[in-house]
Design a protein that fits this description.
Strand order of the largest sheet: 4-1-5-10-9-6-7-8
Shape: globular
Bound molecules: manganese (II) ion
Number of strands: 10
CATH topology: Arginase, Chain A
Distance between the termini: 23 Å
Number of helices: 8
CATH class: Alpha Beta
Mean pLDDT: 91
Structural class: alpha/beta
Amino acid sequence: MPDRLRFLASKPRAIPSAIVFGAPLDLTESFRRGAGLAPPRIREVSDSIESYSPALDADLEDINLVDWGDVPLDGLDLPGSLSEVETWAQRAAGEAPFLILGGEHTISLGAIEGLMKRYSNLVVVQIDAHLDLIDSFAGLSVSHATAFRRVVEYIGAESLVQLGVRSGTRDEFALAKTCLHSSPDLSLPPAIRRRLSGAPIYLSIDIDVLDPSCAPGTGNPEPGGHSFHTLVSFLYGLRGLNVVGMDIVEVSPPLDPSDITAAAAAKLARELILLFGRRVAIEKPSDPCLLHSGTRPLAKFKP
Ligand SMILES: [Mn+2]
């Protein structure tokens, strides 16, 4: 039987140092759908990039990345879908830092609810073109446009950081002022950085934070965005923070010429996993002395 599609260099079974799974939710997109097709497409495209990150001098082959596949959402309504995502996130959090491949942005709500059961002091860092703070959108109180209004109600505005945001209503921007931090830039003032260094963090990346020229395949492209280089450089600066869960959402393969956006998501996923996955290989080395024999012993543990 052919192996099912897995993310680059992931293993079907292992004690994980990082977990990836898909949440192909696509129920509330307001403008253009397709985000539900992203998890398999990002996995396919991940095969086109190297497992080694030159910027981090680290390789996915040297850690136990486990791909759990996709949360089964077929036939479920929105509350049922978010409940499934919550269950998977809660289970993953008990094992290793995890990355969810969306899906529409609403999935973050399920993941955050799952993490809050474990980390009541969770801080959420939302990297997004849009504030997503509307109270109700198209008659829905829970949707991709309202997700972070519900997050604010759940964790408190003082626990939400928004970065890259450049679109929203006047009322949303007024509410954003009450957040721990909200900025169109991808940078953290020193005081906010210090606050983050003491907390478990959920990092949610809406791919539309990138400029549409480097991420055209998304439901609501917003001009005036960041370059891939700016985004990934900012993420490198978060190294050392206790990021316990992450997502990359709103990639829409039917809108994605030449897989530009899926490739950006796949490369971001690799860097995030290498940045925030556990650094220690779980498998026992055949020679315990190898543990102390060099600066990069993990490569020697490869089966
Ligand atoms: Mn967005």
